[in-house]
Amino acid sequence: MTKGFWRRITAWRRSAPPPEPQDQAVAAQARDHAPGKARQERWRAVAGAPGMDAAAALFAPYQPPSSVRGAGAVLAQDSMASAVWDHAGGGLAWGNGLLAEGLTFRGYPTLAAMMLRAEFRKPVEIIAREATREWIRLRIVGPQGEGLPGTTPENMQADTQGGLPQDTQAVPPQAYPRDAAVRLRAVEQAFARLEVRDLMRRLVAQALGYGMGHVWIGLKATAGSEALPLRLTSHGVGRGQLERLSLIDPVWTTPAEYNALNPLAADYYRPTGWWVQGTQVHATRLLSMVPYEVPDLLKPAYNFGGLALPQMLEASVQNFLRTRQAVSDMIGNYATRVLRTDMAGGMADPGGAPEIDAEGVSARLAAMSAWQSSNGTFVLDRETEDFSISTASLTGLSDLQAQAQEFMAAVPGIPLVKLFGLQPQGLNASSEGEIRVFYDEIAAFQQAHMAPVLRALLRVVQLDLWGWIDPALEFEFVPLWQMSEQESAAVERQKADMDEINIRSGKITPAEARAREAADGTSLYRTLGLRPAAPGPAAPAVQKASS
Length: 547
Description:
The protein is α+β, with helices and mostly antiparallel strands. Helix content is about 40%, strand content about 10%. The longest helix has about 35 residues, at about 430-465.
């Protein structure tokens, strides 16, 4: 029989240190495992001053690592942030800071660590792969078939008046091939050599994961001229001058200068130069992608990038992880064995309180745990003891966890079947509609963020190949939603019937029908090089009369 059991338990609880809050515990663990240099050099997203709350830190300018800016380079801080906070800080602090909570830039080290978790990484990878899965299709705008006029100076002058750049040569050089198929094949081979498709996939993943991505246009014999503007003309990029295309991690970049004075200027809050690990680079030499742009007031705090997808998913992922752990704990502890017994032992003294035989109770519990299998036997006192199992209801746990998963999929707009592999439940349930909506989102993403970068790369590649830019050479994204072979054959049958009816009625000629078929990007015969005029029937062979 143990004396003073509860008194010792109470004394131990009083002497034990209080549990550390979860956020402080995570921060302490990060400090304990962080390298020495990281503890000394503060390159977090927000240079938090003492006493600065979360809402005020939202507008604090980004502080890059000391090695990013050149020696002695200082970027003038925008005084607008403090004025905006004085004007709108009270509104951001509404609800005990709920509006400002989770809005500050997480910083590139934190975002890189978040990308190690599957819940943050997979949505980024799915969007990047889907955006480059079917890739692009090069095409020539206008009549470019055999026997038709190709791109001439007159055609180019007419096209440039429609908005295309006019700073190219008026006459194609001698090395420029006149055959459209040869030009398309040369550009496709150049894209394959430079691995443009994989470059764009990694650029999208980088831009979504960090809020910003950069493509460096590496030219030969340009060392020391990185700070000069790059004009995508024959005078700026010569034949055979393109050396490589590479990604630049945004953590090694920060703006060198930007205009924060005149909102009417074209470069207002748009950096005209960047520091890249101590080297100043003109903005025209970096092709940037910012999928989720932030307002101008927050651009200095976000290193002139945008909102990263992991930061947007942070609240949903934390709720899902907490729900998943709670469901796991509930399943692991849904059944509790209950032993009703006489826990009061003898009396310590005639006038004292009864004490519990802790050693006896612990021994009984250890025996129950050791003999809890189906082959075990446990003996109970018939008069003073009783044994039962108390279970908790597990109804609704799967719905709670599924709802938390749906919240994670709602932020990037990815169907559950693609993000988690979950098929819809129910009679005649299908994900076809959700997938088509997702493909529409990907198509809009391609046009808004990938197309500007690809247009610039297409011009650079043409200058590198021929020293001339063909305004009729364009590209289009191949739709992700593809028809089956039966559906494609049915569509082609309808087109053929329509052409036959139009030709018989005199609306179009056979040559016009062939031209339409040659210009149709979805036609089954688009790769045959259809001529405008159908070839005539072969002349019958003349048979010699036998003598």
